[in-house]
Amino acid sequence: MRKLLLLMLAPLLIGAESPRLVPDVSQRKIEIIYSFTGAELLLFGAILYPGGRAPSDDAQIAVVVKGPSEPVLIREKRKIAGMWINADSADFRSVPSFYALASSKPIASIVDPRTSVIYELGIDNLQLSPASGGAPAEDRRFESGLIDLKRRGGYYSETDRGVEISEGVLYRARIAIPARVPVGRYTAETFLIEKGRVIAAATRDIDIDKSGMEAFVAQAAERHSFLYGLFAVILSLSLGWLASTIFKRLRE
C-alpha cells in the first residue's frame, strides 16, 4: 500500500519539471491454452524531458513485472528415523506469485538501499510479510528457502543490463513468462532512476488468464468441485480398466 501511494503521488512530489515516463507492453492480455509454452513480454517506452531539455547521461531504467500476491505456507522436511516428514513451517501473508526485474545496470549500483526497499527493487527487497511470529533469524531462513523455490521454478528472476536505452530517451526490455505461470492481474512497473533516486514511475496492467479447454476445466473444478472430483475418479477408473483390457488382449 505504501508503495502504491508513492507511485500515485510521485508526480506531485517530484514536481512538474521532472521527466516523465510513457511506457507500454507488447501484450495487455496473455491467454493460456493447451499448447501454451510460455511467452515473452516486450516492455518499451520513452522518457519525456520537459522544455526540450537534453537527456540525462545518468538516467537509468528498471522494469518490474509482478504477479498477484498470495498467502504461502512453506514447510521444512527433515529425515527422522529414516523417513522424510514435515517439521517446521512458516506462513507468509503476501508473496508475489511472479516477480521479474530487468535493469539497465545492476540494480545495486544505480539505486540506494533505502529506495530499493521502498520500491521493492530486487528479489532480496521483497516484503513477504511473514505471519509465523517466529524469531527473525528463523523467518529469514524460511524466506530464503521460499525465494530459492521461486527462482528454481522460474517465477522469480533478475536480469542486469536487461534494459536497453537508446539516445537517452527510448528504452526496451524483454521479460520471459514461464509456461506454468499463475493466472491473474499482473503489473508492469517502470522506474526512472537518477543519482540513486527514483524520479519518475509508471504502471501498466497485464491480464493472464486461461482460455478454451483450460478455462472450462478450471471453472468446472471451482464451481462444481464435487462433480468434477467424481468425474475425475470415474475417468481414471475407466482409463485404467481400458488399458488393462487392451493389455490382456495383446497377451492372448
Shape annotation: globular
How far apart, in Å, are the first and last alpha carbons? Answer: 69 Å
Strand count, sense and barrel status of the largest sheet are: 6 strands, mixed
Rg estimate, integer Å: 23 Å
Strand content: 35-45%
Q: Percentage of helical residues?
A: 25-40%
What does this structure look like?
The protein folds into two domains: 2-67 and 97-210, Immunoglobulin-like; 212-252. Helix content is 31%, strand content 40%. It has six helices and twelve strands. Strand 5 and strand 6 form a beta hairpin. The relative contact order is 0.21. Mean pLDDT is 81; it is low at 11-15.
In short:
The protein is an alpha+beta fold.
What's the arrangement of secondary structure elements?
Blueprint: H1 2-14, E1 20-25, E2 29-32, E3 39-48, E4 60-66, E5 69-80, E6 83-96, E7 99-103, H2 107-110, H3 113-119, H4 136-152, E8 156-160, E9 163-166, E10 170-177, E11 184-194, E12 197-210, H5 213-223, H6 225-251
Parallel strand pairs: 2-12, 7-8
Antiparallel strand pairs: 1-3, 3-10, 4-7, 4-11, 5-6, 9-10, 11-12
Labels describing this entry:
alpha+beta, 252 residues, globular, 6-stranded mixed β-sheet, Immunoglobulin-like, 6 helices, 31% helix
